[in-house]
Design goal:
The chain is α/β, with parallel strands linked by helices and 441 residues long. It has 13 helices and 16 strands. The longest helix has 24 residues. The protein is globular, with a radius of gyration of 22 Å. It starts with a helix and ends with a helix.
Length: 441
């Protein structure tokens, strides 16, 4: 066994795994561009392509020279200062850039940015913001949230409370999570009909009507639910939620932590629908995967109302809020996006995934294949064997991290056509191999 992996197994606890996990583990020896060099527990080296963008964040690739240079420049000045009573250029520039690129519609635009540590925290801030907004507006009983089934918004307590109540973690923390209101999942985009949307809308409207006096906001991932199942629904459903929120005096919170910064073919998934939220959560790709940073953006009305409330402030303040190194990385990442090349890259990656994953539909173990922007998903008929599929993909030169019944890819935007082809073929081959092994067993 690799000595480093042995030391890891003796001391560390990995996400979504027991402390003494038997799941396979690889040591990362190097990362460059789209490639990782891994060492396995037997000491063997594997050169693989990262189809995951390190949980959807490394959109510009590893060791990106623009990103590296930006962080070095900031490091030569200062790496961190508290954000209480102080400010700095990277934070101000980042806020200006985010507001300039954020979704907008006539009469509604985002005007304020609260910088947070991670995606989960940006959701916590958004939920606090919505409750404080309603309280300051004379509606203190409005402290619950309306959302849709199948969602995922993070692992902290308030965020868990708006995740799917069955497939999320509600059963593990009974009595501790807030009791929110869950509408049915919208119709799938691939099979959506006008009648299906109308039926779904009626159900959501009824829930909003029944609970409007206790609801602060609607919170959803627009068009693509990420860790809740890589489920794609239509832009019309996002517009419906905007209408319902407005009708009942609710805020609309859009969680674009997974979808923001080009992943779906627009800078933000909300832009497919022409909808602007009252509160927007972003993270993951914000810093190009270099450092942890997220942000919660809100309208001027939300900011003014909360600030005029009894508390006189938004009641949150992370120690590392607006960390200058992270802000510098985010500015560099947004600067790369500002060139506009990402749009063609995302379309190209999506086209490659469409072609490359199509053969999976011929496999008995596959229920569906779907593509949205630079996201490719193979949905299996049964739960995925994470260890077996991961090993099989590594053998074919690709790193994936499947979950539930999904084997999926969110490649870096810089992936070449050849890279994407290798990723897709490795995913199909891994599914085929492991499904045959399961049948044989």
């Amino acid at each position: 066994m690799s000595s480093l992996i042995g030391r890891d197994r003796a001391t560390l606890w990995h996400p979504y795994a027991p402390a003494s996990s038997t799941l396979p583990l690889w040591e990362v020896e190097a990362a460059d561009g789209v490639a990782l060099r891994l060492r396995d527990e037997q000491g063997r080296t594997h050169e693989v392509l990262d189809a995951m963008s390190s949980w959807w964040s490394v959109i510009h690739g590893y060791r990106n020279p623009v990103m590296d240079a930006a962080i070095r420049r900031q490091l030569s000045s200062f790496s961190h200062v508290m954000f209480g009573g102080l400010t700095h250029q990277p934070a101000v520039e980042l806020a200006e850039s985010l507001l300039a690129m954020a979704p907008a519609e006539p009469g509604r635009r985002l005007e304020r940015v609260f910088l947070a540590d991670s995606g989960s925290i940006s959701v916590e801030v958004a939920l606090k913001m919505a409750v404080q907004f309603q309280t300051a507006g004379g509606r203190p009983k409005r402290q619950r949230f309306l959302t849709i089934r199948g969602g995922y918004h993070g692992d902290t307590f308030a965020a868990m409370g708006v995740c799917d109540p069955v497939d999320g973690m509600h059963s593990s923390f009974p009595g501790l999570l807030a009791r929110n209101v869950f509408a049915p999942r919208p119709p799938a985009a691939a099979t959506v009909t006008t009648a299906a949307v109308a039926e779904w809308r009626a159900k959501v409207e009824e829930l909003a009507r029944l609970h409007s006096n206790e609801l602060a906001a609607i919170i959803v991932e627009p068009m693509l639910q990420g860790a809740g199942g890589m489920f794609i629904y239509s832009a019309e459903c996002v517009r419906t939620l905007r209408d319902i929120a407005d009708h009942h005096g609710l805020l609309l919170i859009l969680d674009e932590i997974a979808t923001g910064f080009g992943r779906t073919g627009e800078l933000f998934a909300a832009q497919h629908s022409g909808v602007a939220p009252d509160i927007l959560c972003v993270g993951k790709a914000l810093t190009g995967g270099y450092l942890t940073l997220a942000a919660t953006l809100c309208t001027g009305e939300v900011a003014r109302t909360v600030s005029a409330g009894e508390a006189g402030a938004l009641l949150h303040g992370p120690t590392f809020m607006a960390n200058p190194l992270a802000c510098a990385a985010a500015n560099a990442s947004l600067g790369i996006l500002a060139t506009g090349a990402w749009r063609a890259d995302v379309a190209r990656v999506g086209a490659g995934l469409t072609t490359g994953l199509a053969p999976a539909l011929k496999l008995d173990a596959v229920a569906d294949v779907r593509i949205f922007g630079a996201v490719g998903v193979i949905e299996l008929t049964d739960a995925v064997d994470v260890a077996a599929v991961t090993r099989a993909a590594v053998e074919h030169g690709v790193w994936v991290r499947p979950f539930r019944n999904l084997v999926y890819a969110m490649p870096p935007y810089i992936s070449s056509d050849t890279d994407v082809g290798v990723m897709a073929s490795a995913m199909v081959a891994a599914v085929e191999k492991t499904s045959k092994q399961r049948v044989a067993a």
